[in-house]
Amino acid sequence: MSELVPEPRQKPVVPMKPVGINANLLGYIGIDTIIEQMRKKTMKTGFDFNIMVVGQSGLGKSTLVNTLFKSQVSRKSSGWNREEKIPKTVEIKAIGHVIEEGGVKMKLTVIDTPGFGDQINNENCWEPIEKYINEQYEKFLKEEVNIARKKRIPDTRVHCCLYFISPTGHSLRPLDLEFMKHLSKVVNIIPVIAKADTMTLEEKTEFKQRVRKELEVNGIEFYPQKEFDEDLEDKTENDKIRQESMPFAVVGSDKEYQVNGKRVLGRKTPWGIIEVENLTHCEFALLRDFVIRTHLQDLKEVTHNIHYETYRAKRLNDNGGLPPMTVETEENHESNL
Amino acid sequence: MAAAEVARQGEGCRTVPLSGHVGFDSLPDQLVNKSVNHGFCFNILCVGETGLGKSTLMDTLFNTKFEGDPASHSQPGVQLKSNTYDLQESNVNLKLTIVSTVGFGDQINKEDSYKPIVEFIDAQFEAYLQEELKIRRVLHNYHDTRIHACLYFIAPTGHSLKSLDLVTMKKLDSKVNIIPIIAKSDAISKSELTKFKIKITSELVSNGVQIYQFPTDDESVAEINGTMNAHLPFAVIGSTEELKIGNKMMKARQYPWGTVQVENEAHCDFVKLREMLIRVNMEDLREQTHTRHYELYRRCKLEEMGFKDTDPDSKPFSLQETYEAKRNEFLGELQKKEEAMRQMFVQRVKEKEAELKEAEKELHEKFDRLKKLHQDEKKKLEDKKKSLDDEVNAFKQRKTAAELLQSQAQQAGGSQTLKRDKERKNFF
């Protein structure tokens, strides 16, 4: 038992070691209804999700995002006409849509990065992207530090970054390595092998192995990061994904064809129809399940609890600490005087 | 490379239809699973006079015997006792903290009785605020000790609220969700109870006390919450004893004139309280505490420390700027104080120095005077000595002269005597 004697300047209550009570429960209390209560509340407030796609043009980024969310959320660029100038810098285009399924409303923002890797000299082309990501953290931090805060701070931080790897079949390009090295520290990167229908099964496995090896050698931690596994269950599950499935070799398509009497999304070629959602053809279904059906909330949480906190700590350290911590030393000074 | 351009389509996002099953309707489940793995916290504060059955009611609500001995009436002041328990039901882990007031209402002078309670609640908010303002913080693993619900136990007098109750509730209503309950309500009859409830509600309203209203914005619970709002304050009875009634074991209290069943809605409102507190609104209570009471506390605390929000289009991170300004101001003040002290010190030193110089001068003068005196004395003495010497000399001279004269006289006399003697002799 802890007795709290109130003093003029009371220290916060230190929670004592909790007494575990399980065997004494004599009847149903109803604590587990909190799950339902929580679920209802979250459904009412809705969710935000911000996904960024990075890769050279022509790798099928927009098509893949449209296939992932089964709607036209990303406008495909039809290449640069003579009249349009090739952008000299990497542009960042963020477009938001609201999609609803099963009573769950989600505000999905797709952040496109046209111009990445398209110039002749691609030095530092990740800088605008890094800047954008940090700007979103800054915006959130500013809102959080306000005295009168909004009830729900709008979340524009990038939760997930899909990095498209060109299916050369050899290894990662230096640009890929540089980009991922710089950005794996500020955002969750999921490397994806685009246009995987250009590789045979053996080529695919070999390429994936080589890519994984190179990422490991260069110390690039892609999502799910090893250090953030919370318990054994997570670790085994994520290990399996990290070591076997990632990077996902995907094919995107928004056209439907008739295969075996069913309508499926696919790509029609003279030698057959590649079914997007068929696991034997490509790993799109794995990517979709991974990102949307199982790890979406985790992506958001890692962004909030780890990447955002790292940014915040760095930002506050650079400015010499946040007020109340040093105001207390000021108070001590005053009393000493 | 020049800065990137951000083209963002604004808040008016269109709704896009889906052409197939995507699968993000599992999002609430993902969120809930994560929370379940994490565990939940719930903190209840029981405020009420000694002997109103607070501990028994907690035992009854959670179907378990929490530790504790009943408190005595002779406490010198109001104290708060806090206990934390880990409860588990199916797959939900709940960290339940029950805080009870000990000695509330027992003192002769009850003016300050509410203070320890308010301080305790503020201390929990302060702890959370400190954690939130740290540079390296672990908010998602933080054990939340803020009070989510305050059960205020009203004594079953049947008349009206005591002034102590009104004062305490008024102080607490902006800091915590208050749910007033009438304790030991088996002491009141049905008709008296309705009158009592009406009196209490009207008193609360006329004194502007904001008690917790069950939320009515969500359709699924709006109806039940609405009806429950009308039944506040709940009249409850607590009992951990089980008695055989009919052919079931029920929690009840046995009197010679009958048995009061705790879970019978006709007998008391215990079931309603349990429904509202735990089964329907636990999450809402937590949310209200965080978004309303905590934010209010935070805003007041930060404003008290002198921080203001600047307009949205001014420099970013206004808190930092204000802090810098305050810091400079403070340092300036420090410097001024230091200067003032130094001036004073210098002045004092000067004064003391002058004093000392004065004293020195005086001493010198005295010394001179004394020396002069001494010399005078010496001179006088010497003069006297000289005169004495002179006298002595003169005396010696006279003495010698006199002796000489005498000896001469003697000689002459001697010779005379001789002569005389000769003459005498010759005479003979």
From TrEMBL, chain A:
Keywords: Cytoplasm, GTP-binding, Nucleotide-binding
SUPFAM superfamilies: P-loop containing nucleoside triphosphate hydrolases
Single GO molecular function: GTP binding
Gene Ontology CC terms, in alphabetical order: cytoplasm
Main location: cytoplasm
InterPro entries on file: G_SEPTIN_dom, P-loop_NTPase, Septin, Septin3
Record's keyword annotation contains Translocase: no
Domain Septin-type G: 45-318
Record PROSITE patterns: G_SEPTIN (PS51719)
Cell compartment(s), UniProt: Cytoplasm
Region (Disordered): 315-337
UniProt family annotation: Belongs to the TRAFAC class TrmE-Era-EngA-EngB-Septin-like GTPase superfamily. Septin GTPase family.
Name recorded for this polypeptide: Neuronal-specific septin-3
Highest classification ranks of the organism: Eukaryota, Metazoa, Chordata, Craniata, Vertebrata
From TrEMBL, chain B:
PANTHER family per UniProt: SEPTIN (PTHR18884)
Annotated segments matching region Disordered: 404-428
Basic and acidic residues bias (residue ranges): 418-428
Listed name of the protein: Septin
Gene source species: Calidris pygmaea (Spoon-billed sandpiper)
Family: Belongs to the TRAFAC class TrmE-Era-EngA-EngB-Septin-like GTPase superfamily. Septin GTPase family.
GO molecular function terms listed in the Swiss-Prot or TrEMBL record: GTP binding
InterPro entries for the chain: G_SEPTIN_dom, P-loop_NTPase, Septin
Compositionally biased intervals (Low complexity): 404-416
Coiled coil: 342-398
Top-rank lineage group of the source organism: Eukaryota
Top-level taxonomy: Eukaryota, Metazoa, Chordata, Craniata, Vertebrata
Septin-type G domain segment(s): 38-304
Pfam families: Septin (PF00735)
TM regions (residue ranges): none
Keywords, sorted A to Z: Coiled coil, GTP-binding, Nucleotide-binding
